[in-house]
Structure formats: C-alpha cells, structure tokens
Amino acid sequence: SSRELAEKYNSDYVKILGDFKLDCFKRSTSLTVYRYMRYKWAKNLIESKKISFADPATWEDPFEKRFVCGDYEQSGFKKKQIAAFCVTTEHGENESAFWRQFDMENRHDLVQLTFDFDVLIKSLSEFAKKNNAKVYVSPCKYDYMSEEIKNNSKIQKVYKTIDEESFIELACLKRRAFKYEYELRIFMYGEKLPIEGGRLNIPLKGKLVKTLK
Q1: For residues 56 and 68, is the Cβ–Cβ distance under 8 A?
Q2: Which of 3, 59, 81, 108 is such that its CA lies 20 to 30 A from the CA of 186?
C-alpha cells in the first residue's frame, strides 16, 4: 500500500502521496509498475540506461496540462521546474484497453515494460539529491468531468490555497473517463533541472526493466 511505500521510500528527496497499491513481481518482493511505449523508445531506454521525463508543457492534451502548467502566483505560490513520467499500476484488468489506446494507428510497434519500482525510485532519489530537487509520486485523481476541469470553479473550492503538495495533486487531476488507466505520475521538481528540448534524462542505477512484452 502507499502507506507502506511511504514508510520505505519517503526522505528529504522522495515523497509518496495519495492512495494506491503496487503489484509484487511473480511472488517475489520486487514491486512493479508498468509502462506502454513505442519499441524504439523502449530500446533507447534500455541501451542508454537513462529514463526520459517530459516537461508537461510538451503534452498535447490541454486537459492533461491545464493545472500543472498553470500560473499560481496570485495565490502566493511560485512553482519550480517540473518534469513528469507516467506509468500505470494496472497490469491485467485493462491491459487490452492500453494496447488499443497507445496503438490507435495499428502500427503494432508497442511494448509493455515492467519496471522495478525500487530501482526506479532509488535512481530518481540519487538524481534529485545531486540536483537539489525532489521526487513526487502520486496517483492520478479521476474526480472530475471534462467540463468541470475546463471551468474549474468546483476545483477552486477544493484547492483554496496552494502549496507544493497541493500543486502536485492538481498536476494529477484527470478526466473521469480515463479512470480505467490507474495512472501513477512521477515528478522531478526543482529550481535548476537540466531540461533540454522538453526532456529531462535521468541515469538509471540497476536493472529497471524486468520484462518486455
């Protein structure tokens, strides 16, 4: 559970938020999350031993980036640089939906990667320490319809004041129609992140990918 994860991983550089659970890999103690991506990107991740986080400003979906790219200075909150990497905690129940969603053009060059969560968090924690940043891990919240996100008066009543953690929560709001995704968002958050061309490349220490399908 996220409570147990927080007890294990929370530190000066890592913060587990929200309520979610992770799978154990094939009856072992390894915890896993999953990612669907084009084969060439998966190949590059494995060969380069680097994981690429995206600047949310590069996301195409305006609903996805509405809050993470918002301006909160009138609320007294000045956000830092942020880069994100999205995975899912869902392995079996909605697997076919993921294949269809990420291969809508029927290119059939999609793979599902199983990531070792421990390797991922430890690599990110080390990078955050070197760059005076922080790692936030939070599940997406599917509490709102499209119109409620577009006209955010209802959301403003919930988030009357903004601090670092509530900003991360806002960055994890998604439309209710995507609840089947069980998306987990991982953020690198800091003042001087080496983001180039909308990407933040982070070195991996250890074997991140446990399986490729």
Answers
A1: yes
A2: 108
Tokens of 43: 């190949």
Cα–Cα distance, 191 to 209 (Å, whole number): 29
DSSP 127-188: HHHHTTEEEEEEE-EEEE-HHHHHSTHHHHHH-SS--HHHHHHHHTEEEGGGGGG-EEEEEE
Torsion of CA 119, 123, 125, 126, to 10 degrees: 140
Q: Which value, in Å, is the radius of gyration of the alpha carbons in the chain? A: 17
Give the model's confidence band at 75: pLDDT under 50 very low, under 70 low, under 90 confident, else very high: confident
Question: Rounded CA gap, 19 and 96, in Å?
Answer: 24
Q: Kindly tell me if the per-residue pLDDT of 93 is higher than 70.
A: no
* Cα–Cα distance for residue pair 68/170, rounded to 1 Å: 7
Q: Determine the average pLDDT of the residues in 132-137.
A: 98
The model's pTM is 0.90
Q: In terms of DSSP bridges, do strands 173-175 and 141-144 run parallel, antiparallel, or are they unpaired?
A: parallel
